[in-house]
Design brief:
CATH class of the largest domain: Alpha Beta
CATH topology of the largest domain: Aldehyde Dehydrogenase, Chain A, domain 1
Largest sheet: 5 strands, parallel
CATH superfamily of the largest domain: Aldehyde Dehydrogenase, Chain A, domain 1
Number of domains: 3
Helix content: 25-40%
Radius of gyration: 26 Å
Structural class: alpha/beta
Shape: globular
Number of helices: 14
Length: 543
């Protein structure tokens, strides 16, 4: 059976392309599905536009739209087992986690169903003048392009589809090409509820082939996207041409909020669960917030805690100290030839090297990006272009140490983070070496045939002083903060944790995330952080 759902019909991709879907857990073939291209995306928009402009759905009473969403919730509960299995096969996650997700998804449709059915969306505003009637009326946006990621496929879809339908919109859904199956099932359930043809449409495929045509089509009124920053920027730029409404959720980790009267041991347990649940793809981990959690609980530098009005439980001066990271620079060239417009991920090459003899591991690393990376350079006045590539040197063993401190005792306030990048001469030397080496690499074949004008820092920057001035104003981070609650020997007063990750001076409390690292590894610390969690679990089981 074809897997694209357009205008109420299941159809195959126009050009006949298909994609194999394999389970990440063991690599087994799950299925082969149709893969849409620009023609399929255009057809789906046509169907959604026709359904919105001439179909009955936008004018359907709110109570009926809400009732349909409630029927969807009931169908999801009916087919919960099959949906959970499909989700686990696509994502590789444990079946029990997928089963929990299905409950949340049903509740999402139920929430919006009840909200819409209640009819409480419009309101009258008292203007203070008896001769003036002012009323706030909500109307549907129109055709919505909904683009979802792979980490929570159906839940992310529900968060977009349920409110879009409830408000009377029509939509085209493009899920991640890696995890399409629960989106396919959802379309079948929507059809089963009697949703009019063309209101819900589904295209499967990659971002460049199936997603980009949706964001660029002038007949689309709104784009809702969850995913990476680079893609989000492209979507915003594409939507600007026709002034589409845009809703973007672009990666990142969410802080934990701990009230003063909370059980701090329970709070830390939940923070650790947020880090490691679902292989770290929950986007709810508390990276910088590990020391914040401890300090709000009274565990940290006594003087700083008292300054914020926090009662001191344990005077632990190392909490929030020794912040380490991988600071990063960028050097960017205009490309002489057209750059790729389709990529699995735009940063596909890594280079490790040493800057001096006798090192036991590299102290310099580059990412190669086949896209412009002008987040910090453009706003500083450096030129940019859409057709560019860059190298981003980063210091793998940085010696500059920062701090994390409380601003106030109010849990709602973000911690005061001072990374103190490039305050150690070693880091400055390595980064300047990296910029010079990047120029050498790009001057050689085959990159010399691609490298046009150097956009940032530009060929005029040659001396150490000029290059460091550029680094100071444009550097960023690879977002690998670590070391702020480091482990150490039992007698080391500057290490808040003992070798078993137990918080010194507090019973029954351990920390298990990147903050415990005495020294940040030269590579991405995600795997190391997961291993820390596994080791901590082993120690807890062993007693």
């Amino acid at each position: 059976m074809p897997e694209l759902f357009i205008g109420g019909r299941w159809v195959a991709a126009v050009d006949g392309r298909v994609r194999e879907i394999r389970c990440p857990a063991d690599g087994t073939l799950v299925a082969t599905v149709d893969e849409a291209g620009p023609q399929d995306a255009a057809a789906a928009v046509t169907a959604a536009r026709e359904a919105f402009d001439r179909g009955p759905w936008p004018a359907t009473p709110a109570a009926e739209r809400g009732a349909l969403l409630l029927r969807v919730a009931a169908l999801i509960e009916r087919d919960k087992d099959a949906l959970a299995r499909a989700e686990s096969l696509d994502t590789g996650k444990r079946l029990v986690e997928s089963e929990y997700d299905m409950d949340d998804i049903a509740n999402c449709f139920r929430y919006f169903g009840n909200l819409v059915a209640s009819g409480g969306t419009d309101r009258i505003v008292d203007t203070g003048s008896p001769g003036v009637d002012s009323r706030v009326v909500h109307v549907p946006v129109g055709v919505c392009a909904l683009i979802t990621p792979w980490n929570y496929p159906l839940l992310q879809t529900a968060w977009k589809v349920a409110p879009a339908l409830g408000a009377g919109n029509t939509f085209v859904l493009k899920p991640s090409e890696l995890t399409p199956h629960t989106a396919i099932v959802l379309m079948r359930l929507l059809a089963e509820t009697g949703l009019p043809d063309g209101v819900a449409n589904l295209v499967l495929g990659t971002g460049p082939d199936a997603g980009a045509p949706l964001t660029e089509d002038p007949r689309v009124d709104m784009v809702s996207f969850t995913g990476g920053l680079v893609t989000g920027r492209r979507i915003m730029a594409a939507a600007a041409a026709t002034v589409k409404k845009v809703a973007l959720e672009l990666g990142g980790k969410n802080p934990n909020i701990v009230f003063d009267d909370a059980d701090y041991e329970t709070a830390v347990d939940y923070a650790l669960m947020a880090v490691f649940l679902h292989s770290g793809q929950v986007c709810s981990a508390g990276a910088i917030d590990s020391p914040k959690l401890l300090m709000l609980s009274g565990i940290g530098p006594a003087g700083d805690l008292r300054d914020c009005g926090v009662d001191v439980r344990v005077d632990s001066p190392g909490v929030g100290s020794h912040l380490q990271d991988h600071p990063e620079g960028v050097i960017m060239w205009e490309a002489k030839q057209p750059m790729v417009t389709r990529s699995t991920q735009w940063w596909e090459i890594g280079i490790f090297t040493g800057t001096e003899p006798g090192l036991d591991r590299p102290d310099l690393m580059f990412h190669y990006g086949s896209v412009p990376f002008d987040m910090n350079t453009y706003r500083r006045g450096y030129p940019t272009t859409d057709n560019a590539f860059c190298l981003t040197p980063n210091v793998t063993r940085a010696r500059s140490m920062g701090t994390v401190r409380l601003r106030t005792r109010d849990f709602r306030d973000k911690p005061r983070v001072d990374p103190r990048y490039f305050t150690d001469e070693h880091d400055i030397r390595v980064m300047i070496h990296g910029l010079r080496l990047a120029r050498e690499i790009t001057a050689r074949a085959p990159m010399a045939a691609w490298a046009g004008a150097e956009l940032a820092p530009g060929p005029a920057a040659q001396s150490d002083e000029e290059l460091f001035s550029y680094i100071q104003e444009t550097h960023n981070t690879v977002y690998h903060p670590a070391g702020t609650v480091r482990m150490g020997s039992a007698s080391d007063a500057d290490s808040p944790l003992d070798p078993q990750l137990r918080v010194k001076g507090a019973g029954g409390l351990r920390v298990a995330d990147a903050s415990v690292m005495p020294c940040l590894p030269a590579v991405n610390p995600c795997i190391t952080t997961m291993m820390i969690g596994e080791k901590c679990a082993d120690m807890i089981r062993a007693g």
